[in-house]
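[User]
Um, tokens okay?
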Amino acid sequence: MHVLGMSILLAWSSTSFAELVVNNSPVASGTNGSASLNWSANDASQLMEEDEPLEISPQGSTSVTTTLRSGGSATITSSSSPKNTVQIRDTFSNSSNYSSQPSVNARAALVMDAQTGEVLYSKNSNMSVPIASITKLMTAVVTADARLNMSEEITLESIDFAGAGGKNSSSTLRVGDTMNRAEALLFALMKSENPAAAALARTYPGGRPAFIAAMNAKAKQLGMSSTRYAESTGLDPHNVSSARDLGILVSAASQYGLIRQFSTTPTYDFNLGYRVLKSNNTNALVRNGGWNINLSKTGYINEAGRCVVMHTTVNSRPAVVVLLGASSSQARTNDATNLLNWVATLPKRI
């Protein structure tokens, strides 16, 4: 069995990390992409068990409404509020505090105060568009919710490389590669490997159809009204969402220590037994280590453009950043950097 943690680069024990989750403290991704850590798949399982994932009321009993009013104000509220439920009460204001908002290249964008729910920046945030590998964030949530054995061996099959939506699944992985479920999840989150995400759905109880149903059920429960999932990788352009909905998903996913940890791993050497895959996080801001990024996921297909979602902490303010449809990787990075620099200039919350 290949043990996750033979060369993984992150440095907290499952116990200390669980304490961070319970205390709702931000998780640093390391300095200049050089955090160092060792844990096994058993540690990942323990961390998953100690997490307090988002609690959702029974399907149909949660009402989320969005109202747009003149002057740019918006309100998103949920009628139910069990422990750890995402509660977004956003007030987007064009007041003088935010008058010098940066322009972004992306087709749609959202910046939200993750603690108060205030929308700090919005561009086409209710527009439903293809989301590419941002899909894998929901894949991770559904996997974590299932409390599956993280040490279970998964062998990649040809079907995992078939792609989706008519697209081939480009990958450094090969049919027959074997890894445990924790490694598959890390592959999907930090390196955005499509076969790993496909294998997570295939090996889910009930198989791929049950997994996709769980993805859409979770989206509905969270109040993601503009979101639809067709498969688990993001290759299919029928996976669609809005910046507003993804703000909700990022807020929910940030409550899972396992997802926070894996999505912000800067670099990892995957030991597949007969070869080692040296891998880097797909988000340059995570690799460079200049920002305190607690959760990250990038995405790209032609229909979606370059996308990224992040949960970050800027000047002690937890913030969610969503960018969809940037024209290039550099434009996406520039947009994210400009928005983070702008958030750093805002008045601090009291």
Remarks:
- Residues 1-39, 53-85, 90-97 have pLDDT under 50 and may be disordered.
